């Protein structure tokens, strides 16, 4: 088969679709990406307004992700690093927990904080070491229990779970009960231990931009919504039908009918509010957590080098399910920030509500077995939802689906 004229369509130009295209291009193929929106990157997006970068939801690139190391150029992304650990706000007190081995300034605050017992702090250290020696393959082959039970079984006290693990991992898993499978906890904890949480200088969307810019022989057709696929046909919502030799789908479809169905899957959501504040109350590069179960505010940070008319910007994430309208949410969060964190907001800038932020799935995987990647004749699947909700998984799934597709061609 002549590679250049082989008609390969990729449904979705999110991170998995972009990596799939990059992998296909590397072997001489010229895929076409069909993307329903007007931009590449899917859930990894940043708006720019008056020189300020607004990420669509707070997310971080963990520099230790093996797939990110393979597909991204960190130097060109100009990554800003967060300090390991967090600043915890609880009952009017502010305490710091950190990794003294990588940031010596965290040594005393960590030892003397009342966030957990000394035994808890030693256990954090031993868990970090244990997971350093456990491979990612082993992690995803381990039995799955809830993260909460995992932490309890490991012997962590309720105090450190409530003061640190629950707020920290609520922000990562986008759910408050810590019911997310322990495989994800181990994977994320390992990644935090082996690298840094980072953000590109131009916001998280710079990752999408970098991947899209690497494509030289692919075409992205924006505003093309796929409604149904069969073995060699793609039906677009506008009635057009495209003939194809192979289809790589990066968004949930019902295999039997070939119909696109995003709602078939459970999703976790969040709100992200941006404010200006009078002054920074803690350093950039530190993630603040509100460890009060009733608070709407989960985490907050000052985006690196971002100001509006000289006022610093604060990004706040809300994970709690709620029915508040924008005005009430902004008021509630502003008063929480004052009460728990002693932060006075000056003006509200914008809100992003991301209803389908992370897939709510279990039986999390590092990779799909090849016979699960090909779901029917000429149809291959990728996307974080087939593995686990992370940038690493999106990239891994896109790459392996492209490889499987090429093998079959
Ligand atoms: C708020 C938030 C916080 C997160 N935090 C982190 C984090 O800290 N670290 C981390 O590693 N990951 C995080 N993630 C997860 C990470 O962003 C995702 O795992 C990853 O972006 C998924 O990429 P994807 O290509 O699998 O899916 P998507 O990004 O969903 O891409 C699918 C693409 O398909 C398009 N599409 C959908 N339906 C159709 C159709 N019918 N026809 C054509 N095109 C279609 C969509 O528009 C989209 O562009 C977070 C995500 C969010 C939203």
Automatic annotation (TrEMBL):
Which EC numbers characterise this protein's activity in its record? Answer: 1.4.3.2
**InterPro entries hit by this protein:** Amino_oxidase, FAD/NAD-bd_sf
Domain of life, source organism: Bacteria
Listed SUPFAM superfamilies: FAD/NAD(P)-binding domain
The residue ranges of the Amine oxidase domain are 15-402
Q: Name one GO molecular function term.
A: L-amino-acid oxidase activity
**Which Gene3D superfamilies does this chain map to?**
FAD/NAD(P)-binding domain
What's in the keyword line of the UniProt record?
Oxidoreductase
User: Mind telling me which PANTHER family this protein's record contains?
Assistant: AMINE OXIDASE
Q: What is this protein called?
A: L-amino-acid oxidase
Recorded source organism is Flagellimonas maritima
């Amino acid at each position: 088969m002549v590679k250049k004229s082989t008609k390969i369509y990729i449904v979705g130009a999110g991170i998995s679709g972009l990596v799939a295209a990059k992998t296909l291009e590397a072997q001489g193929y010229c895929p076409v990406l069909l993307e329903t929106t007007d931009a590449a990157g899917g859930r990894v997006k940043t708006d720019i307004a008056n020189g300020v970068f607004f990420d669509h939801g707070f997310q971080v690139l963990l520099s230790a992700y093996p797939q990110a190391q393979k597909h991204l150029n960190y130097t060109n992304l100009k990554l800003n690093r967060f300090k390991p650990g967090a600043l915890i706000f609880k009952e009017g007190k502010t305490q710091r927990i950190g990794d003294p081995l990588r940031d010596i300034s965290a040594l005393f605050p960590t030892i003397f904080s009342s966030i957990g017992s000394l035994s808890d702090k030693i256990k954090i250290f031993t868990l970090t070491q244990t997971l350093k020696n456990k491979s990612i393959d082993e992690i995803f082959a381990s039995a799955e229990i809830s993260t909460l039970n995992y932490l309890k079984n490991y012997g962590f006290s309720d105090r450190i779970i409530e003061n640190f693990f629950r707020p920290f991992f609520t922000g990562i898993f986008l759910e408050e009960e810590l019911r997310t499978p322990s495989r994800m906890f181990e994977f994320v904890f390992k990644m935090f231990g082996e690298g840094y949480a980072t953000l590109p200088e131009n916001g998280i969307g710079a990752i999408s931009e970098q991947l899209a810019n690497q494509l030289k022989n692919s075409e992205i057709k924006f505003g093309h919504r796929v409604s149904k696929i069969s073995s060699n046909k793609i039906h677009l919502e506008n009635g057009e039908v495209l003939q194809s030799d192979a289809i790589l789908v990066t968004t949930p479809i019902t295999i039997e009918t070939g119909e696109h169905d995003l709602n078939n899957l459970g999703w976790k959501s969040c709100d992200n509010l941006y404010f200006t504040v009078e002054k920074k109350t803690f350093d950039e590069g530190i993630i603040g957590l509100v460890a009060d179960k009733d608070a709407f505010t989960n985490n907050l940070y000052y985006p690196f080098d971002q100001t509006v008319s000289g006022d610093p910007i604060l990004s706040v994430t809300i994970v709690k399910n709620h029915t508040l309208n924008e005005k009430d949410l902004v008021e509630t969060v502003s008063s929480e920030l004052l009460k728990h964190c002693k932060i006075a907001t000056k003006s509200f800038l914008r809100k992003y509500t991301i209803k389908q932020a992370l897939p709510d799935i279990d039986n999390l995987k590092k990779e799909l077995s090849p016979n699960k990647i090909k779901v029917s004749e000429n149809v291959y699947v990728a996307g974080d939802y087939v593995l686990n909700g992370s940038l690493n998984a999106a990239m891994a799934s896109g790459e392996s689906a492209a490889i499987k597709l090429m093998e079959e061609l």
